Amino acid sequence: RAGSITKQFTAALIAKLQDERQLSVYDPLSKYLPFFKGHGEPTLLELIHHTAGFHDQESDCVSQAPVTQIELAKRISEQKTLYDFPPGTSWLYSNANYILLGAVVEAVTKQTLAETAEQMIFFPLKLTDTAFDSHSDIVMRRASGYSGTGNSVKPFVNADFIPIEQTGGAGAIRSTAHDLCRWHYSLFTGDFLTENSRNSI
């Protein structure tokens, strides 16, 4: 599992959709997720740059049942604390920003974030070991996750289970070092994005 490296793939999907004229990074979030209308109106670019101000997800935004990124976005919109600061006025790292970007991808493409990433990034760039993970997938050579205990006798334990799909655009990708090298080469020196979109994110 690649964790928050996922965020660069999500941002690149937004930029790719901009190249295809399906959206603009300067559009307000509410253009694609109408349930945010009247709630600060951050732009997609502010979400990408962590300047939108969204409070990070509260624990009750996650459940064991499969949900879409749009459903998670609705839960974020219902948080008691929606913003830590007004959009565009400060910076704060927040996974919620990238859950919302994943929801925008789903709203624009009318398919899941995983399906869009497969069609627009993983398959065309031959990233054969990269995918949005599912806890039910059987993956050859999968590395197991561990958590530190602070105990020198037993320094690690198996990591707690989390429904990784629900981290979506913020952290759900699995990959390999080889695929990530191929991805970075394509992203920064290839023609995956136009220069304008690459510079905009």
Instruction: Describe the largest sheet.
Output: 2 strands, antiparallel
Q: Name the shape in a single word.
A: globular
Helix content: 25-40%
Kindly, what is the distance between the CA atoms of the first and last residues, rounded to a whole number of angstroms? 24 Å
Structural category: mainly alpha
Following the backbone from N to C, one meets helices and strands in this order, namely: HHHHHEEEHEHH
Can you count the helices?
8
- In terms of DSSP E residues, the strand content is under 5%
Q: What's the total count of β strands? A: 4
- Average pLDDT confidence is 91
Q: State the low-pLDDT regions, or none.
A: none
What would you report as the Rg, rounded to the nearest angstrom?
Answer: 17 Å
Strand order of the largest sheet: 1-4
How would you characterize the overall build of this protein?
By secondary structure, the chain is mainly alpha-helical. 38% of the residues lie in helices and 5% in strands. It is built from 8 helices and 4 strands, in the order αααααβββαβαα. The strands form 2 sheets. It has a two-stranded antiparallel sheet. Strands 2-3 form a two-stranded antiparallel ribbon. A hairpin with a 7-residue loop joins strand 2 and strand 3. Helix 1 runs parallel beside helix 4 and helix 3 (69-77) packs across helix 4 (95-109). The longest helix is centred in the middle third of the chain and has 15 residues, at 95-109. The protein is globular, with a radius of gyration of 17 Å. The mean pLDDT is 91.
